[in-house]
């Protein structure tokens, strides 16, 4: 049942932010550092209800906004919507532990970055499209590989499997 606790999500998001800011800059060039919180949001929301997926996305996005110290709410709103949509979609698709998380994380990245660009433009920031989107292919691939890996490492399971395991006694 640990995977369904909000305090555990908080710990995972803080670890993801530490990895994103301390480890990934050593691997990727500076402007192209991928988002590590997005695949984690997808993998948490994949095994949750839409309301809890929204909460997970809001928590991860808000922590990322607070960590970065800029534009509070941009990632919180984007990731909350992503968490809700992933959790809602999870009830309508088959539960494959590799393909589905990777596909949803890649699609999430494909939707989130243009959505954030539009929000920034509406807020009065003047970013041109090409420099803002030049990292999109790398980030999509990173998310597509990282979400299933995180799901396997964390051994996330659907709620009904976890509850059946605890009620059956093993």
From TrEMBL:
GO cellular component terms listed in the entry, alphabetical order: plasma membrane
Principal location class: membrane
Domain of life assignment: Bacteria
Keyword match Transmembrane: yes
Annotated compartments: Cell membrane
Pfam families hit by this protein: MreD (PF04093)
GO biological process entries: regulation of cell shape
Entry membrane topology: Multi-pass membrane protein
Keyword set, alphabetical order: Cell membrane, Cell shape, Membrane, Transmembrane, Transmembrane helix
Transmembrane annotation, as ranges: 71-91, 98-119, 139-156
Xref: InterPro entries: Cell_shape_determining_MreD
Statement: the UniProt record of this protein carries the keyword Transmembrane helix: yes
Protein family according to the UniProt entry: Belongs to the MreD family.
UniProt name for this protein: Rod shape-determining protein MreD
Naturally occurring in which organism (per UniProt): Sulfobacillus acidophilus (strain ATCC 700253 / DSM 10332 / NAL)
